[in-house]
Structures are given as C-alpha cells and as structure tokens.
Amino acid sequence: TEGLGSKISKQLKIENSKLKILPIYVDKKKIEEGRVAFDLHARYGWHFILLTVSRLSPEKNLALALAVLARVRERFKDTGLVIVGSGPEENHLKALVKKFKLEGAVEFVGWQNDLASFYKTANVFVQTSFFEGYGLSLIEAGLYGLPIITTPVGIAQELEHGKDAFIYPVGNPELFAQGVVDLIENNYKRENLRTNMKHTLDIKLISRADYLAQIKDDWASIATNIK
Questions:
Q1: Do the domain assignments include residue 14?
Q2: How high is the pLDDT of residue 223?
Q3: Is residue 13 part of a domain?
C-alpha cells in the first residue's frame, strides 16, 4: 500500500518516486464465485455474527475484538464472534474470553480451507490490527459482500470511513462497539457499506494480465536505472 511505501521510504531514506508499489494480486472472480457449504447461524445459533480471519499474533490485536464483543453483548446478547486462524496468542485470547465472561459467545476454529461459507454467512467482518502490510482478509471480506469495521491499517488507509467501511482508532473499543451496534440496528447501513466497498474494489483491484504487465514494467524500469 501507499502507507507501507512511505514507511519504507523513511526507514531506508529512499525517495518515494524511486519505489515501485505493487499490491498483492487478488483473484476476484474465484472469490466472488465461492459457494456456501454451511451457515454460521445454523452452526452456532447466534442472531448476529462477527467474523475475523487472522493469524493469532500480537500485532493483530484480537484482544480488542473480544473487548468490543463484550460491550456489544451488553445490549445484544445474541451476538457471537468466530475467529478463523491460529497462532501464538491463542491461549492468551482464550483466557481473555473467560475474563470477559464470553464463554459460549466466541468460537476459535483454526485455519479453514472453505472461507466462502464464513465470509458469506457472517454479518460483519472485524479487523483490529495494530499494523497490516496490505490486509488480504479485508479485501476478501469486501469481495464476498461482508460489511467491514476496521482499524486504519494497510489497505484500509485508502478507504473512506462511513462509505466503504467503519474505520476506528486502534485503542477505542467503545467506538468499535458503537459501530457494531449501529450495524446491528441498521440493515440499510450494512447494505450501503457492502455495495460501496464492492464498487471501490472494482476500481482498485487490477486484472491478472495488468498485474503481470505492471511487474514486467517495474522490473524493466529498475534494470534501466541500474544501468
């Protein structure tokens, strides 16, 4: 992303103009054609389901997602969180589930091959990271039509708050919780986020052919500058 490019530029003391920034290629068609094999609501019985797809590591800040869920459940008890992923923070996060009295409201399901069923049958995607180089899972959520609440990291820095996604500061679980409650209460806002994000991604994501052509051009430019 442009944000990561600026960070690298400052760290290595390289002019921005000399950096070539190419996002991760995303197979849009494959994602959009993903089929649903099961429904999270039928599997877990919650009325409203939050989803996060992430490595369980410190920079992903999933403790924030749990703090948000605890606040949301004060008003909407029938809300749950599904966490797809694994990592070194898993035991710590499970301890937080007990601390926040969220037993029965959080499911750790590990890494999954069938992400379509998760993205397509959850209600809101939540990303709470301190840092993201890009944010592939956020892109996947947007392509699957899942409304997004996120911190301003990675590709989210290029999105518009209230239009493409709800974007809140890292250290503010109250704001995050208010955003979730707003989406629980207002289906039209979920629809607007879903529609606007898909439109934004249609503009931002490039085809495989264009992606490969850009790689070729960038390497050709680098080779020319070396000479």
A1: no
A2: 66
A3: no
Residue 17 maps to a domain: no
Specify the length of the chain in residues.
Answer: 227
The structure tokens 């494959």 sit at 30
Q: Is 222 contained in some domain? A: no
Q: Where are the alpha helices (DSSP H) in the chain?
A: 2-12, 28-32, 40-44, 62-72, 90-99, 115-121, 136-143, 173-185, 187-204, 208-226
Give the residue, 12 or 113, on which the prediction is more confident: 113
19 touches 86 (CB < 8 A): no
The sheet with strand 124-127 has its strands ordered as 106-110, 79-84, 48-53, 124-127, 148-150, 166-167
pLDDT in tens, 154-210: 999 999 999 999 999 998 999 999 999 999 999 999 999 999 999 999 888 766 666
- Residues 82 and 107: beta-carbon distance below 8 Å: yes
Name the 3-class secondary structure at 8. Answer: helix
Instruction: Tell me how far apart the alpha carbons of residues 9 and 5 are, in angstroms, rounded to a whole number.
Output: 6
Chain CA centroid to CA 40, Å: 18
Measure the CA–CA gap between 151 and 168, rounded to whole angstroms. Answer: 5
User: Number of structural domains, the chain?
Assistant: 1
Phi (first) and psi of residue 168, to 5 degrees: -130, 155
Residue 31 has pLDDT above 90, yes or no: no
Which CATH number fits the domain that encloses residue 140? 3.40.50.2000
Domain span at residue 80 reads 27-208
